Amino acid sequence: MANYQSINPYTNETFATYDHPTATQIEEALTLTHALYKKWRHEAVSERAQQLHQIADKLRSEKAEMAKIMTLEMGKLLKESEEEVLLCANICDWYADHGEALLAPTPLPSSLGNAYYLKQATGVVLACEPWNFPLYQVIRVFAPNFIVGNPIILKHAHNVPGSAKLTAQLIHRAGAPEGSLINLFLDYDQIAQVIADPRIQGVALTGSERGGASVAESAGKELKKSTMELGGNDPFLVLADADHDQLVKVLADARTYNMGQVCTSSKRIIVVKEKYDEVLSILKSVFSSLKPGDPLKATTTLAPMNSQGAKDKLQRQVDLGVANGAKIFYQYPKIDEKGAFFSPAILTDIAPDNPIFDDELFGPVAEVYKVEDDQAAIELANNSSYGLGSSVISSNHDHAAKVSAQIETGMTVINGRWITAPELPFGGVKKSGYGRELSQLGLYAFVNEHLVIDVTQK
Ligand code: NAP
After folding, report:
1. Is the CB of 193 under 6 A from ligand 1?
2. Cα dihedral across residues 49, 51, 53, 56: positive or negative
3. Are residues 106 and 199 in the same domain?
4. 341 and 258, same structural domain?
5. Whether 145 and 101 share a structural domain
6. Looking at the structure, do residues 18 and 71 belong to the same domain, yes or no?
């Protein structure tokens, strides 16, 4: 893609377009960020921690402006955009509060001498980010690297350029030094050129397998460290002892938050036979009570998808699934709006040989599976190319913990849907990628664990 345009998916109208940077602008960005990396090497972490608190404050004070552009560009409910801005402020505060201690040298008991390792910055990191959480995806990479001392060059998704631009402006307006984060509207060839530049020392991508494979290939060719946060087909296991009220609470938005466009959204709802009808009935009640409309309005609960193209792709996937034996248990009536609205649907009877069985359906479609028992639920959950998140719903904690340990995903939430917080690591296994963001694991993603040993001190 990389044709940067702001198109409001509620109206399908284009309201801004942006040009790719010139070679000179790219060179300036690399020079500035690299110079800042060199400067930061001599500065105390505490100074950046102070600046990161200021960035958190700025995000809170400019919440309305940031939330509005995100909703205008990718259609999410304004309330969800506002929650996202506040979450990002908390992420900044968390790294500002904990970063310095987490970066302290780690002693290494050794008979060879006094040994320890430092955790040092490595250089400029290129962040390639998706549109689904326009601010959060950026802050997940920016905040820890800011504390470490790695400046960021941001290549955001083609459909959220205004959000990318405002993010960079807010960071700057908060008092962060020039070059802390530079936003460039790069095309794909320019991404490869930037990755090849020796001043770039790391590449972080959140997005699809397609984007991940391409950027990881460029990074691998240049021997640059990378983290890949990719797609998911998250299983949501409902066990026989699941509590009804808990199920109602969790299913209320497990598949519709952000219009289902969450990597860790509960896409495959795997239910033991005793609970199958109950789960279908709860989901139907949730889906049928949604209210479509302008995502900027507080009364709207059914937002458009992020683009007409995304809506059309989801429709093709549903049609393919149905043509191969899946059944539509329920679908929301046709929505009389001109934007990229998809009527939320509940699919059942998806056999393993259905071509959509192993696909990520990135929108408001719940795929519900009926299984005999826990073992069958675990096997189905693990029968996926993906391994990002999962949920286990059970009123017996030991039961839930035992099942959770057998699921091949990077994250499992017991009695809840997907979750994210600054202190919790985020990431997956299999085709969901590698590396972790957030928590101390995210802080160390692009750190040089620099061994120092004094052999005269034993
Ligand atoms: P995407 O197409 O892979 O885009 C992600 C970023 O990579 C964008 O900036 C995109 O730029 C760029 N990109 C895509 N193809 C590229 C290529 N061949 N060369 C260089 N750059 C490329 O992802 P998406 O479909 O927009 O985002 C949704 C996906 O992200 C879903 O699969 C979702 O599950 C996943 N996701 C994962 C996580 C996680 O933490 N694991 C979180 C959120 C979303 P353009 O926009 O210009 O194409």
Report:
1. no
2. negative
3. yes
4. yes
5. yes
6. yes
CB 271 within 8 A of CB 238: yes
Nearest CA to ligand 1 atom 16: 211
Looking up residue 50, the CATH number of its domain turns out to be 3.40.605.10
Question: Residue holding tokens 């969790």?
Answer: 250
Domain check: are 69 and 52 in the same one? Answer: yes
Which atom of ligand 1 approaches the CA of 432 most closely?
A: 41
* Dihedral angle computed from the Cα positions of residues 205, 447, 93 and 434, in that order, rounded to the nearest 10 degrees: 30
- Distance from the alpha carbon of residue 128 to the mean position of ligand 1, in angstroms: 8
Nearest atom of ligand 1 to the alpha carbon of 264: 34
Dihedral-angle region of residue 303 (phi above 0 means left; psi in -120 to 50 means alpha; beta otherwise): beta
Residue type, 325: G
* CA dihedral (24, 29, 32, 33) positive or negative: negative
Six-digit token string for 271: 């239910």
Q: Does some domain include residue 427?
A: no
Indicate whether 411 pLDDT > 90: yes
pLDDT in tens, 268-308: 999 999 999 999 999 999 999 999 999 999 999 999 999 99
Beta carbons of 321 and 347 less than 8 angstroms apart: yes
Residue 68 belongs to what domain range? 4-230+432-454
Nearest CA to ligand 1 atom 26: 130
Q: How many domains does the chain have?
A: 2
pLDDT tens string 49-101 = 999 999 999 999 999 999 999 999 999 999 999 999 999 999 999 999 999 99
